[in-house]
Amino acid sequence: MKKIRLFKPSVGKEELNNIKKVFNRSWLGYGPLVNKFEKKFAGFIGTKYAVAVNSGTAALHLSLLCNNFPKGKKVLVPSITFSATAASVLYCGLIPKFVDVREDDLTIDFNDLKKKYSNDCVALICVHMGGHPSQMEKIRPWAKRKKLILIEDSAESCGSIYKGKKIGTWSDISCFSFEEKKIITTGDGGMICLNDKKKYEKLKSLSFHGWDTDPWKRHNKSFGKNNRFTNHWAYEIKTLGYKYNMNDLMAALGLEQLKKIKTFNYKREKILKRYLNGIKDLKNIKPTYPYKLKNSSYWLFSVKTKFRDELINYLKIKNISTAVHFVPLPYNKIYKKYKNNSLKNTMRVWKQIVSLPFFPDLENKKVDYILNCLKTFDRKISKNNI
Ligand SMILES: Cc1ncc(COP(=O)(O)O)c(C=O)c1O
Question: Cα of 38 to ligand 1 centre, how many Å?
Answer without folding.
Answer: 19
